[in-house]
Design a protein that fits this description.
Glutamine Phosphoribosylpyrophosphate, subunit 1, domain 1; about 15% helix
């Protein structure tokens, strides 16, 4: 697979929906993850990311405008020991809870499927970043309907056990705007990971469609020590 520009890939459509990027910094020192959300409706755009322990959660920017919290209020990022879990829904909690009982990332997601938001049946995308003992590996997952048929859930998992410096994978919920919204197709795109945490955060944020972007979270985890830095950008400033 040919590596492509993350900036160009993000700008390819005005509405990729929600997206996860996981990879390794160009200098090889950091495990990198990014998660963004976008919105078309007032309810979806009325959100911000806030810190919650070692992770983050979404909350309504203006509580008076929150019409339906289901599917939009959740914890996108949680940390379980050496694992950082990032997803586009409340399956974050499913993975966190079941992995703490000894189940794997894949086994945890077997209990879930795509979102019940007909006719879109939005895919559930998830990532697991494992950093321990100077080693880094990651896994990505997508649960989606079978070409819009909700009677069948397609479950695809993509694992990388030796991420290369300057490379990452990008998965998102939609191929573009539409009605219904077309689900993501294929395997996660191989993209470049450029710069330090601040320049990378700017690159991702500035590449997203200005009208539809809502919030962005970026984390750089030191592969040797496990220490991390995070950045949050919200279009709705708190």
């Amino acid at each position: 697979m040919q590596k492509i520009s993350l900036s160009e890939e993000l700008g390819r459509t005005s509405y990729p929906g929600r997206g996860i990027v996981i990879g390794r910094s160009a200098d090889g020192k950091y495990a990198v993850t990014a998660y963004f959300i976008m919105g078309r409706s007032v309810n979806s755009r009325n959100r911000v990311f806030v810190e919650d322990g070692e992770g983050i959660r979404t909350q309504a920017f203006d509580p008076s405008k929150l019409s339906d919290p289901s599917l939009i209020i959740y914890a996108p990022v949680r940390v379980n020991g050496s694992d950082t879990i990032v997803t586009n829904g409340d399956q974050t909690d499913t993975v966190y809870d079941l992995m703490r009982t000894g189940q794997t990332f894949e086994q945890s997601l077997q209990t879930r499927e795509f979102e019940p938001d007909a006719p879109n049946f939005t895919p559930r995308i998830s990532g697991l970043v494992h950093v321990e003992g100077g080693k880094f590996e990651y896994t990505m997952s997508i649960l989606k309907s079978d070409n819009g048929d909700p009677s069948c859930c397609l479950r695809n998992t993509y694992s990388v056990d030796a991420p290369k410096p300057g490379e990452g994978r990008f998965i998102h919920t939609y191929m573009g705007d539409g009605d219904p919204l077309p689900s993501f197709e294929g395997e996660p795109a191989l993209v470049d990971i450029i710069g330090d945490i601040d320049s990378f955060t700017r690159l991702v944020w500035e590449s997203l469609d200005e009208d539809n972007k809502v919030s962005l979270f970026v984390r750089y985890i030191d592969i040797e020590s496990g220490a991390y830095e995070s950045r949050i950008i919200n279009k709705n400033s708190l």
